[in-house]
Amino acid sequence: MAPIAEFRENPDRCVYVTGQINQQLVDKLTPLINRLRLSSNEPITVYIDSLGGLTSQARLIMNLLRTPTQEGHRCKTVTVVTGVAASAAADLFAWGDYAIAYPHSTVWFHGTRQQPGEQITTEVALSLAESLKQRNEGFALEMAKAALSRFFFRYLQLRSSFDQLRENAAPMEDAECMAFSILIRLSTEFRIPIDAMAKHGRLSQLTKYLSQKEKQDAHPPKDENHLQAKLLKRLIDFKVNEKKTEKNWVFSKKGLEEVQQDFSLFLDYHSGDHMRNLKEQVLSWGPICLDDEEMGAYAAVPAEQKNDWLVAKTQDKFKPLWQLLVSICRSLQQDEHIITAKDAYWLGLIDEVIGEDLPNRRLLMENRPTVQPPPAAVAGAGD
Q1: Residue 270 maps to a domain
Q2: pTM for this predicted structure
Q3: Is position 208 within any domain?
Q4: What tens digit of pLDDT does each residue of 142-161 get?
Q5: Does 305 map to a domain?
Q6: Diameter over CA atoms, the chain
């Protein structure tokens, strides 16, 4: 079977992102990128060994690589970290269509930082904090979208072990099994999957409580503001009941902050920006969430009903898995996370580690069986 170019590095069609990512590097790479994207439809390899720099310039490099020709064709990008991909370079690496890491390489993620030399005053401190928070959120969601296919490929790898996990622990949903399966495969101690599991568990508590209250609601809210006001009141009641045995707990200390966290967590899951295209994602990835029996039923559904059937059947399965991936990517945009190549693989951030015996899409595509034409077709081709 011939190698499939979009899953392999190619030093004959490549650019090198090394040193500081800045305007000088963009100026250097732009002519080369344009020659490569206009000379052939083949993928472009991006070799990365950089401690980062300006995220805006890293985004510009990727945008140049993704720019289509006048005929509308876009070259695929294969990003390869050969040493270290840190900060903006880590984002550039993760944005590739297929991401490869050399076994000795590391990926270093952290949140957006204030630029050196910026003056912080009391008046701008809150505004700056909110701005950094929004930028971190934007990068996290972009990373989650780029990692979606990798994460669900990992889900397919690990799903067969979920039943065994459930035998040895309390009942767990697929998202919790996935988080635990990732955790036990990491080479070093990361709190990322643990934090994601904790958020998922908290979300399940809140959803169960609020669903019961909603069923008892004789007067549904008339608009979004009244809906959120009612949600907030119920979360306050939930928190009061939860903390009734803690004598020193009061709203004026950490209570309001805890309610705010629950409020944001619940709204984010049910109506956050990353959920706006949920139906589109379910239509793309929902079949992966089906078991063998469900796949048989799906095959029998009439073509005009397949989309509605798939959304109804798999949305509740897909949504927590997508939220888990988003939680992982958000965690990577906070604090410092220096990650080995194999750990980045298990977190669903990259596709392949060179030289490691780990399943990947390249092996799947290159080893898939070919359908041979029937002898009559072969004979007829030469007539």
Answers
A1: no
A2: 0.83
A3: no
A4: 888 889 999 999 999 999 89
A5: no
A6: 91
